[in-house]
Amino acid sequence: MTIQPQAATADLDRAPRMTHARQPLLREIEILDEYGARRRIHIPAERPLTVFVDKRELVTLMTLGAAPELLVLGYLRNQRLVGRMDEVESITVDWDISAAAVYTRKGLPDLAAKTSRRTVTTGCGQGTVFGDLMNDVSGLTLPPPERARIRQSTLAAMLETMRQQDSIHRRAGSVHGCALFRGSEMLMFVEDVGRHNAIDTIAGWMWLNGVTGEDKCFYTTGRLTSEMVMKAAYMSVPIVVSRNGVTQMGHELATRLGMTLFGRAANKHFLCYTGFERFDSEPLPEPASVRVVSSAG
Q1: Beta-carbon neighbour count of residue 97 at 10 Å?
Q2: Residue 178: burial class (beta carbons within 10 Å; 0-12, 13-18, 19+)
Q3: pTM for the complete prediction?
């Protein structure tokens, strides 16, 4: 996990007490390759983390454990289970029992109602959405295009930063990465087993440090599903960039929200799917056409 130290200052008066139970992110194993050779490689160290809220079991997250307390805090925020920072008294992670104990100051009396309607999203990095996803859209407002924009050159600089970023994926594969940018400056980068964990960890960091999303851009290696779009909207981030593609529901939700989505973004290439009004295009020159001349034998 990479964090720029100058990005924000924590609001200690509202922040919950938290452990710092970061775990090793890689594990070395021996493999046998196609040439019959034995060698040592690294793989991501996936582990379960069961979250308890006031002693009530809520969910088990599969994670690398890069910043488990931020992951739990962001999960609670993005699932709309906790609305204010001062509702959470403490988050304690104990890897000996693979559990995160969340204690609130006054309890969450509507927790049962909030968790009664639960949609489990399948696919890479299983996520969970509590409540009615589409009904929540009406209460979200992103900043207007004149206050939240991105130039093509800035997008290219972001993609170059991600290309050069040292990562677990580069060394071991099998993970997703997410990053938060202000202009071309990367404020935070985190990798985890799934893209949902990575975005929740960034959400937790933003909330803890009072970082707002209105002037930020979010990057992910994962595809832009409806849940990923919704989580970015909860963070008030109006521009989202993915190395992967966009699903139909992700596209429809972003259109309703007025969010700008870029997909298939790598090097200087990209597709802008929605929110063209936020994008200051600086078109690249069209590649020269190649003329094929056949010779008679």
Answers
A1: 9
A2: buried
A3: 0.86
